[in-house]
Amino acid sequence: MKKTTKMLMVLLIVSLAAIKTYAQVSIGISVRLAPPALPTYTQPPCPVDGYLWTPGYWAYNEDGGYYWVPGVWVAPPRPGFLWTPGYWGYDGSIYVYHEGYWGRHIGFYGGVNYGYGYIGSGFVGGRWSGNTFHYNTAVVNVNNTVVHNTYVNKTVINNVTVNNHTSFNGPGGVTAKPRPEEQAAEHEQHVQPTHEQLNHRQVAGKDRSQFATVNNGHPATAAMNKVNGKRFSPEGHTARVQDENGAANHRAAADANNDRTAARQEQADKPTSPRTANDAAEKPHRSNPENAGGDRPHAENGRQQVQSHHNAPGAPRQRQPHAGPTRPHENARPQEHEKRRE
């Protein structure tokens, strides 16, 4: 009797473990409405060497419906791991979301073409060499000032933007089936989305402008350079988002302004020469950090165009004291002539 009980307990534990493994890659939220088409967007450059790209996708909230989770560069949980994106699958009655995961090899992600290396099967945006990740710059965008491990393989290009906008697998969508190597990858050791990735999705779910019911399938923030980093519109410009009160703001521009203000403060703290001090006394609006807020940065395509405070429209122009010799007053001339007559 005891042996039978032990055997049942072992079988139960094995069954639960199998269910957990299956749930990691197959079971998720199910809805009856199809997710919107995938938006086309520009990928921001990789900000940190070793970060991997995780494409944007439509998540679902029971209160607001589908919302766009921006594509973002993230740190993998460990070297050698690649990201298999999640995907929506349709079985003829409901749409089920299959959660993404980290692993040594890329598994099946529904045949959905997310772009930037995720062409529907596998990943062609880069590869691991030991503990170093090498980026295929023919497919992905990197910042060459911080990322130096790159190569170019144009034979794998399937356009850097998404050609097929279908966002789900099944009848009416992509009809791809798992390949043998993708099936094998599903049985390997997996790591669930990192804490940063989960936080990234939660933040997107709190932004009204990301919901399809508000943006009609065109999210304000399509991509980000990193979690809690800069936001980018589908065109690759600084994204306009809404704060908690629903007011529009230019978050990336504000970040740039803060960086510039900090740089001015650091410059102001440095010891100055007597000549520099005199210049600062004559023109306080150029060196006084309290006036740094008067600059209005305009961020476009990753570049800032700054309009100086003293050239700002409507700003009063300061007159500098005349540096030339002082001329005698005209009223003094008649008196001088009278003395000569005497």
TrEMBL record:
Basic and acidic residues bias located where?
A: 178-190, 232-243, 257-269, 280-301, 327-342
- A Pfam family recorded for this sequence: WXXGXW
Lineage from the top down? Bacteria, Pseudomonadati, Bacteroidota, Sphingobacteriia, Sphingobacteriales
User: Mind telling me which InterPro entries this protein's record contains?
Assistant: YXWGXW_rpt
Q: Where is this region: Disordered?
A: 163-196, 212-342
Q: Locations of Low complexity compositional bias?
A: 247-256
Query: Know the name of this protein?
Result: YXWGXW repeat-containing protein
Give the top-rank taxon of the lineage listed in the UniProt record for this protein.
Bacteria
